[in-house]
Specification:
alpha/beta, 6-stranded mixed sheet, 4-stranded antiparallel sheet, 11 helices
């Protein structure tokens, strides 16, 4: 069953067309990965769904309702939550404050005690850092905080934009294990990730974006075996 669908989506920055006729489906309960080279339009896709980018054509259906034209806060209230590239935590707020501010919407606020417990179960290191300022955490800890903050909003769709950027391999492995745990807990995930091999290895399905257009789509496993993907994105 489709949770979110884009239909011939077009998005621009001024005169630059970033997305052209992008049509895709995200099914309820899956991990959908978007792979492609730098500037392919992957982050623009996430920002378009979040309401941050100018849409000049097409539709974005969430639960069957067209959300194009809604503002960022209205889209967030529907349960679409973005964990942006670069983490964007609040550096002068404590870990706990970062988490609590993400649960300000009424539904999330009512469940914040359980959400905090879940966040600390997924990222135990954050439990011992609750009073530490976000800006003093390591890069890996900041990424954990960013993901945990996204979960505090009780998302139906969690969109992760380049969660492994700048992290050591052992931290990357941990992040991907947590992403799988989150998905097994019932949250649908849209994953944009530079580590194509890891991204496809946990994906139910995936699409390949090139120059703002979808050029390929299949299961994650099938794309891992695809000769074109191997050559272009895996260096094999």
């Amino acid at each position: 069953m489709a949770l979110l669908e884009t239909i011939k989506l077009n998005a621009s920055y001024g005169d630059f067309r970033a997305l052209t006729d992008v049509s895709l489906v995200i099914c309820d309960g899956e991990v959908l990965s978007i792979v492609g080279a730098n500037s392919a339009g992957k982050s623009t896709l996430i920002r378009s769904i979040s309401g941050e980018t100018y849409i000049n054509g097409g539709e974005i259906l969430f639960g069957g309702k067209n959300i194009v034209g809604l503002n960022v806060h209205e889209i967030a209230r529907l349960g679409i939550v973005q964990v942006p590239e670069g983490r964007r935590i609040f550096p002068l707020m404590t870990v706990k404050e970062n988490l609590l501010v993400a649960s300000a919407l009424p539904g999330a606020k009512r469940g914040r005690v359980d959400s905090l417990q879940r966040a600390f179960e997924l990222f135990p290191v954050l439990c011992s850092r609750t009073e530490q300022l976000g800006g003093t955490l390591s890069g890996g800890e900041q990424q954990m905080l960013a993901i945990a903050r996204g979960l505090m909003a009780l998302p139906k769709l969690l969109m992760l934009d380049e969660p492994s950027v700048g992290l050591a391999p052992i931290i990357v492995n941990n992040i991907f294990k947590v992403i799988e745990q989150i998905n097994k807990g019932g949250i649908t995930i849209l994953l944009v990730e530079q580590n194509v091999k890891k991204s496809l290895s946990i994906a139910s399905r995936a699409y390949v974006l090139e120059h703002g257009r979808i050029v390929m789509g299949d299961t994650g496993e099938a794309l891992l075996r695809n000769p074109q993907v191997k050559e272009s994105y895996l260096g094999l």
